[in-house]
Specification:
Blueprint: H1 3-16, H2 20-31, H3 36-43, H4 49-85, H5 107-121, E1 125-126, E2 132-133, H6 135-138, E3 158-163, E4 169-172, H7 177-186, E5 191-200, E6 211-221, H8 226-241, E7 248-255, E8 258-271, E9 274-277, E10 282-292, H9 294-299, E11 308-315, H10 316-324, H11 337-343
Parallel strand pairs: 1-5
Antiparallel strand pairs: 2-4, 3-4, 5-6, 6-11, 7-8, 8-9, 8-10, 10-11
């Protein structure tokens, strides 16, 4: 049987296939391992060079014609099957749509947004600064002397090959306080800012990580006193934890950049074996604060006899742990999607004071 006759019969059989199953049977009969066209292709190996030059193009042309016809018939049958299904099928638009995969807001980002919302309502602006700082902004301007432990190599990440203008190594900022310095240098009082951001210290355990998030607040104006500080902290914590029974206790402490300085404890109560912020059954240290040291004000080009102010700082990760019941700081940075699905927030859960900052 010559290739032209095989081609004609094959194309007739393919065109007559009424179903996809019948078409598949024809494909196997023609192009399968034991197929008719496949058998012809196998004969090329036993031909002479002259015979292959003549028969090769004819047999390969047959294979291509059969393959093309099968593909075209398959597309036609599938299209016909779809057309037949469409009139008989309906979509019930009243059924709920299947849930699609979606991202979530990390608890740290959520808490950052909550804090920004609270302090914006109190008249604070958000200020930012570089994470790679020089020694002067990170230490010297904040009244931290050369002998302070925070300057030690084991506590701070330095860049030995990157020097500032004063010849000292650049470093990863250990707090967001340099933002306070830069703000006081760049604008005149009154100043009311919060400085959220990443900070770095050489420390790692269940409650400390080498990189963590901090938010600091600064107010500089005439006539600022400790009463303003206490009211600001009470208002902030009541709004953040969404409880009116938040009680604060200020204990004298020491920070180089504030004088006087105070550690702020917040009262808690025991509920079902857990500490819940609110009340005063016990006390938990939460943040540091104080009146801005006159030397810091003077280092920024302001007159401490004319201006005074207060500052405070707290770990954002710690606030998230206390509010949302997380027990290990390291989980914030593990990248575990199971943890994030449990604690993460919907992108639509935008914090608002009217709807609740933790909504």
């Amino acid at each position: 049987m010559d290739t032209d006759q095989i081609k004609a019969e094959a194309l007739d059989a393919i065109g007559a296939a009424a179903t996809l199953e019948a078409l598949e049977t024809e494909r196997v009969r023609l192009l399968g391992k034991q197929g008719q066209v496949t058998a012809l292709l196998k004969t090329l190996g036993g031909m002479t060079h002259e015979q292959r030059q003549t028969e090769g193009p004819r047999i390969n042309g047959l294979r291509e014609a059969v393959s093309t016809a099968i593909a075209a018939r398959k597309a036609a049958l599938e299209g016909a099957a779809l057309e037949a299904r469409l009139p008989s099928e309906r979509i019930d638009l009243s059924l709920p749509a299947p849930e699609t995969p979606r991202g979530s807001v990390h608890p740290v980002s959520q808490v950052m947004d909550e804090l920004a919302e609270i302090f914006a309502d109190m008249g604070f602006a958000v200020a930012t600064g570089p994470e790679i700082e020089d020694d002067w902004h990170n230490f010297t301007a904040l009244n931290i002397p050369e002998t302070h432990p925070a300057r030690a190599m084991h506590d701070t990440f330095y860049f030995p090959d990157q020097m500032a203008r004063d010849g000292k190594s650049m470093l990863l900022r250990t707090h967001t306080s340099p933002v306070q310095i830069r703000t006081m240098q760049s604008q005149q009082p009154p100043i009311r800012i919060i400085a959220p951001g990443r900070v770095y210290r050489s420390d790692s355990d269940a409650t400390h990580t080498p990189m963590f998030h901090q938010i600091e607040g600064l107010v500089i104006d005439r006539g600022i006193h400790l009463g303003h500080l206490k009211w600001t902290l009470e208002t902030f914590l009541k709004a953040f934890f969404e409880r009116d029974d938040i009680v604060l206790r200020l204990r004298p402490s020491y920070f180089p950049f504030t004088e006087p300085s105070a550690e702020v404890d917040v009262g808690f109560t025991w509920t079902n074996g857990r500490r819940i912020l609110g009340g005063s059954e016990g006390w938990m240290e939460l943040l540091g604060s104080g009146m801005v040291h006159p030397r810091v004000i003077r280092a920024c080009g302001l007159d401490p006899d004319d201006y005074s102010g207060f500052a405070f700082g707290v770990g954002v990760d710690r606030l998230a742990m206390l509010k949302y019941g997380m027990d290990d700081l390291r989980a914030f940075f593990d990248g575990d999607l199971r943890w994030l699905r449990h604690y993460g927030f919907s992108a639509l859960d935008v914090p608002t004071l009217s709807g609740g900052v933790g909504a």
